[in-house]
Every structure is written in structure tokens, then in C-alpha cells.
Amino acid sequence: MYKVSAGILLFRRKPNLQLLLAHPGGPLWWDEDEGVWSVPTGRVTNSQSPLEAARIQFQTIFGFIPEGSYLELGTTKTSDGGQIHLWATEHQISDDFIFEPELFEMEWPPESGQKETFPIIDRIEYFGAFEARQKLVAEQRIFIGRLIDQCSKKER
Question: 3-class SS at 137?
């Protein structure tokens, strides 16, 4: 059985479309930028709908669930044979929002026997659609075009 994950992409129009992306934490990603950012997703269990899993994952990462209508962006296959389901909603994170990432522990430096603690996500940031396409992991880039299409239909 393949892995199914789901997530929620926040976007704003200020004045142009901007997408909120997350940068992976930990020393392996410190010097990486293009092609490593993502829309955080979580695994969908048999007892959940993909949207329910996406909302739970968002709550876990950001501490709230965005209100409003959700645009379904569909699914895409991952390089390992899994699927990603994504929804988007327009939401401006307030200036006083404090992002408090979950942490993980790993041996660092490698083969040192020492454990270090790092954030799973070390930062979040809004990017314009063109820059977001460069920043995103390849398997999630398709969702940018789908969001632009959905926003265009909504404006008509």
C-alpha cells in the first residue's frame, strides 16, 4: 500500500498572489534553498478523510486551523508512489503570530555519539508564485498552477 498525505496551502493577495511555504529544519538543510521548501503535509489514516488529515496536520504545525472556504487543488503522485492531496485557503497570518516548530532529535555531528535537537520546520515565509515554483519541492509545484486557475475562476 502506498503512502497518502494531505495538506493545506495558505495564500494571500498582497497585492499579488503569495503562497506560504515551509523550510525543512536540521543541519542537512541549512544551506539548501531552491527545491526544498514545501507545503507541510501529514499522513492520511484509514479512519480519516484527506481534508480531515490536512486540518489536523495544519493544527499540529501552526497551532490553529484557518477558517474560510477551501479550494480543492486535487492530488498528485510522489516519486515514491504515494499521493498528496492539497487544499488552499486565503489567509493572512497576523504580524504577531509566533511560529513555534516541533522538534526532533538526531545524532549530530554524524558518528559523534552526541544528540542534538532541531526544528522539523525552521522557518515559514510567503513567496510570490514565480519564486514559490523555484522554492518548492518538485512534486508539489503542480499545485501552484492549480491554485492560480482556481483563483482566476473565483474572480470571474
Answer: coil
- pLDDT confidence band for 2 (50 / 70 / 90): low
- What's the pLDDT at 79? 85
Q: Which three cell numbers stand for residue 19?
A: 503562497
Q: Does the pLDDT at position 94 exceed 90?
A: no
What domain count does the chain have?
A: 1
Integer angstrom CA distances of residue 33 from 20, 25, 29, 61, 127 = 15, 11, 8, 20, 13
Q: Is the separation of the CB atoms in 121 and 84 below 8 Å?
A: no
The alpha-helical segments, DSSP class H, found in the chain are: 50-62, 129-135, 142-155
CATH of the domain at 86: 3.90.79.10
**Which residue range is the domain that position 45 belongs to?**
4-155
